[in-house]
User: What shape does this take?
Amino acid sequence: MARKISFSKALNEAMIQEMERDENVFILGEDVAKMGGDFGITSGIWDRWPNRAFDTALSESAITGLSCGASVCGLRPVAELMFADFITVCYDQLVNNAAKLNYMYQGEASAQMVVRAVTGGGIRCAYHHSQCIEPWLMNIPGLVIVAPATPYEAKGLLVASIRNNNPVVFLEHKHLYNIKGEVPEELYEIPLYEAHVEREGTDITIVAAMSMLKFAQKAADEMAAKGISVEIVNPRTIFPLDKETIKESVAKTGRLIVVQEGPKVMGYGAEIGAMLGEELFEYLKAPIKRVTSLDTPVPFAPGMEDYVLPHYEDVITACNEVMAY
Amino acid sequence: MSTMIEMPRYGANMDEGTIAAWLVSEGDSVTKGQAIAEIAIEKLSNELLAPEDGIILKLVGTEGETYDCGTPIAYIGQLDENVEGSTSVEIEAAESGNTKSSSSDATMVVMPRYGANMEEGTVSTWFFSEGDMVEEGDVIAEISIEKLTNELLSPTAGPFYSLVEEGSTVKCGKTIAKIGEGDVAEEGEVVSKCSPSEMDDVITGNKENTLVLEDSFETIASGSSVLTPKAKKLADELGVDASMLKGTGYHDMVTREDVKKANEAGALNKAGGTSTPINRKMTAMEKAIAAGMYKSLQETAQTTITMDMDVDNLVAFYKANKADYAAMGVKLSYTSVIINLVGKALQEYPIMRTIIDGDMFKELTDVNIGVAIDIDGGLVVPNIKNADKKFYSAVATELAELANKAKNGKLLENDLTGGSFTITNLGMFGIKYFTPVLNIGESAILGLGSIRKELASKKGGFYKKKYMSFSLTHDHRVINGAPAARFLNRIQELINEL
Amino acid sequence: MALSKEHLLKVYEDMLLIRRFEEEVEVYAKNGTIPGFIHLSIGQEAAQAGVVDVLKDTDYKFPDHRGHGAIVLSSKAEDRKRCMSEIFAKASGINGGRGGSMHVHDLSVRNMGFNGIQGSTVVTALGTAFNSVYRKNDDVTVVFMGDGTLGEGTCHESMNMSATWKLPLIYVLINNHYAISTHYTESHPQKQLSTWGLGYEVPSFTIDGNDIEEVIEVTQKAVDRARKGEGPTLIEMMSYRWQGHFSGDPAAYRPDGELEAWKEKDPLKIAKERLQEKHGVTADEIKAISERVEVEIAKYVKFSLESPVPKPEDAVKYVYTDREVEGR
Ligand SMILES: Cc1ncc(C[n+]2csc(CCOP(=O)(O)OP(=O)(O)O)c2C)c(N)n1
Ligand SMILES: [Mg+2]
Assistant: This one.
């Protein structure tokens, strides 16, 4: 497993290899074919399969609607939302169609589609191109939200998402596109609905997804130097959550910090906190902490944006607080 | 030599008699002087006694039929004897046409697994005999597991062959029957052959009583344990030494629940000592049942009458209609059909739902039929409201729902109150007759026995008939024998009219 | 294109079946047996029966909220009772009681159901039409929509894409004049709604939606075009719903006399007169059809009434294809 490639390349490879394997897989979206996507993630696909890569009009409803309909016919669409923020103009198709098809058809057919959505802030593009949209979808049973944090996960989780028969919103954080990591050349799947313990520890559990994972890792190193052992859980699938892995970890450490890039209200941190309060109360040694953005739109000016997004120092503060409690 | 038994003459004036009931079946062995039939002459009935020891070879007389005195009605003798002078015997087609080929396309029927915890089950009744043709979805057996019973459906159509006897307890997944001709790979290995009710005790019996003690013994062997923060607090409060407890929480941690249990077990140990009998406090349900049963028998004049119902028509109705109901998503069952019929009869016989209240007779106007359901730790009798007004489908579904709720402890107050009559079924255990105890606040309860096949004769030939015995307990203060008997007869009529 | 006597007899019976189906549904909706609200299509039978008559079982159909007729006629004869029992919220219903009136589907005949969100299926239908192109077969897709639904933005996205990619998609726009209480002239600039298609260079027609012969003729042309890969067609079918928007709506917004005038143009009456006058069909033959339909409908009703309700706890099934959702 020596080869190191970027997160973007891993995604690209996942799609190409799945398309080689399964001719029901096709890609569609704005500028995904000839140009290879705004972020270049689909490059090279149209060149190989001009009849399986489609540039669409600016029509997110049509893109996701078509994906629903084509899924029911047995195809496996992989649609790209250039920015996850645009999900609002095709929300109906995801929420009212994709998430309900299997239920309505009682298992006979389902929206076996993937919507790749480019998410997250920090690129100085303001509130229409920087939001973390997972909370907008987290209370829609029937949908799956997948959130890779490394190139290895990018490939394995995208392959699993394409093969999965549920509608998957696949979140790609802009900041991760260029990071490099070891990625096997062959096709492989990382199972959905399973969180991954990135690092074992006994004193504090930090749950962190996507770009927040690196905060957690750095904080774990820093705390280790002080003799505090941090366990890191990366959810990988944000919804439905792998409650068991998180519970096992927190039962051991008795302390939980959730790091999430979006606003504090109603993120995965809120869900995990509430769930543990209900189901694991007796194991807790300290209050649950959330490190998040402020509850504002994402502003444009770099100083303002940095102020709003979560800070690494906040993670350290939270660690100290739960240990001192 | 077999001995012929004739219609007896009990007096000079007697010319003919009616076989009211056969008390034995073919193949039964009898001893001299044993009653083998009930013979009715006008208003009287007499028992016909066996003239010698032997085996009942043939019952040529049919129940309900009247014969001249001196007409042969049965033969008694030793095994392998032929019946002399018996008329030609009609044998069921399936039985004679039963040439077993060795082509191995028979479908195996295995002991099903109804839940993750089920390891073995008991075949309490086979509903078909060797070689009978079955349809896919036919109820072929009643399987009992601990306190529950389930109907086993045929996976396919074809001739049926059982491979284990009724009453056998078999491991899940082992073959217990086959549908179709052909060889069987492996037969169910019979774990035990004691009666299902005995099995109940073996399987569930005293285990619960010893559980707590076992737990506390085990802890001595294990090493020191980790407590959750809240468990530690509780252990301190209760003064429980938790250092040796075995935890059931995440990472085997000791939880609040574990501490509480250890605390209770400690108290129990002290109270009961070690070598004295195990005392267990009765649960609320057990107390209620004990009190209820006693009260019922103390305060009413209970008496039970029984009747063997001809249920051929019921079986035919079930077979003819089950597919239609399956299309609606309803699993029709014999019990549900009987509940419907009993509902109709109850509507016509208000006396059966009349109770004594002080010095008043009180008629319960709603036909709400209770069904006794055996559950872990007791017995519950939820009732189906207005059963007389409901479709078969509605009764079948409600029955399934109530059973399910009962099993999961989810019955509501409303499910358990307002009953006006009760049905209880022990047929799956092979019980024919019993004396059910009245449910408090009701004047009658009907016990259903097993469905069984018996030979009957018609026009000199024999054919198989299906019977089910109904045992009706009624409060004689309200319901006299005759109305009770008429009520049973009405049910038979309704079965015939199905 | 005049239909043969046999053909006209067959679609007459189809229309009568819809009429009687809807009348029974109305009875049980009004007496509370059917929960929720129901949109009835009495008065619009020709548009539904005519379109379904032209389609094969392998063509994709997206009925809309007023689509009981199209749903029932698309179904196989033996499944029609299950369409009704679904509306009755019964376990035997074609969706097991999960969908109800607005979501009756049957994938075995490619009746795709789903239509609670106006304008939603208009884009979903792109997918099944796209599938025919992707797999190079000649299945066509029909999406039903109302005059009011044309106000949804998805209609633009859909026609823009289907016209650009020449998808085998037929838009059947049943113009029954109202979206709830709003007359189509109050919500759209066009006098004739089919002109909407012209901007996308899509062949567009406005026809008498109560004349089943005309419905079949024009639908057949559109289907032929689609099968040949010539792209989408828009057919506006003028019609009128006799009942209110939902069962129970008194429809006070209609001017006096309007309903009566439309009842004169009853699609069943038109077809019956033609059968009698042009094809010499006798009153007895017509009566025999009615009797057949009555027997059929009686079966559906009995089945629907007798079927049990679904188990509440089954509500947690089928949320995901591969994992369980916690029950209570
Ligand atoms: C997106 C959306 N908006 C509003 C509604 C509520 N609604 C249901 S039917 C309807 C009117 C539809 O009118 P039309 O398309 O003409 O169909 P018709 O009812 O006349 O058959 C409305 C407003 C809805 N279901 N979905
Ligand atoms: Mg309208």
